[in-house]
Amino acid sequence: MPKSITFAHYLMGHAPFRRASFFYAYVGIWLHLLIGTGLLALSGARDWLSIFAALVVGSFCVGLVLYGLLTKTRRLLLNIGAYAASIARAFSTDPVVITCFIAGLIAALVSSYSILAAEYGHYQRECHRQPVPLPTSVAFLLGAVIVLLCTYGLLAS
Length: 157
What we know:
Layout: H1 7-12, H2 21-43, H3 48-71, H4 79-91, H5 95-128, H6 136-156
Helix pairs in contact: 2-3, 3-4, 3-5, 4-5, 5-6
C-alpha cells in the first residue's frame, strides 16, 4: 500500500525534484525575515520589538506576494499594500499608520485563509480523491482574530 502524504508535505512539495509554489513563498518569508532581522540588529534601533513585529508581518506579506506571482493569482498582489503598511509601521507610530497596518494585517490573514482553503481542496482531490473543505474551526478562529484586530484598530486610532 502506498504511503499517503500529509498536508504539510503536499504544501512543501513531496516530489524530490518538484517544489510547490508554497515552498518558494515559505523560503521567501524566512529569507526576508532573516535579512531584515540582521539589518535591524545592525541598526541599533531602540524600539526593536515593535519594529520586529512589523518586520514579521512584512515578511508574511512578501510570502503572499511571492505565492501570488508564482501561481499567477493577481488578487494576492493586494498584499503589496499590506507590505507597505507594515514597513511604514516600522518607522512611524502615527495612528493613521497603525490603522493602515492593522487593515493590511487583516487583508494578509484573509489572503492566507483563501490560499490554505484552496490548497487543502487540491490536496483532498489529489491525495484522497474526496473534496473535503477546510475544517470550519479554522474559519471561526480566523474570524475571531479578525474581530480582535478590528477592535484593536478602532481602539488604537
